[in-house]
Amino acid sequence: MRSLLVIRVQPTIAASSDATIPLTPEQLLTANGYHVQVTDSETEALKLISKAEASILHLSLADVEHWVHCLGKGRSDAPLLWWCAPDTAASSVESCEVETSFDGILTPSMAGSEIHWTLHFAARRYMERKQWEQERKQLQSRLEDRKWIDMAKAILCDLKQISESEAYDLLRKKAMDERKRMVDVATAIVKAHQLLQS
């Protein structure tokens, strides 16, 4: 992972005379050999996201939801990290409960090896998160299919005065005869029954 996109919408806090200027993510990452592009524009971010191997949000947690939604409009198959520093964390204490799942967090005090391993683990976490999301969608789809099939079985049991297993066999046979999925046959039965009932 070498090409990174930094999203920053607020200027870095100006340092007082006795404090040091806080490091920005692009300064730290560039110093450690990463190619970094920075933007504060949604339009530009959508163009740059397709070339980035990860996105780093250098903004307060209050702004995170908006930018995650924006980045989701473009290519959203890259890890998402948050830059946790005084200029982002200080304004985020009240809104630390965000819906977004970050794949990693970077801080200004990290050494090169820590950055490398954080990005490596963020990529792994991202892949696991995407796999979980896909499995979740599949399970939800199966549950929805099961609901239609169960409703159709109940209708067939009631109308034909047959058992559940006989209704299931009838559904399965109808699906095979029509070369359709069982859930499609079940959905048609339920919708036709609802139409006749109304």
UniProtKB/TrEMBL annotation:
Endpoints of the signal sequence: none
Pfam families: ANTAR
SUPFAM superfamilies linked to this entry: CheY-like
ANTAR domain segment(s): 129-190
Domain of life: Bacteria
Coiled coil (residue ranges): none
MF GO annotations: RNA binding
Protein name, per record: Response regulator NasT
Organism placement in taxonomy: Bacteria, Bacillati, Bacillota, Bacilli, Bacillales
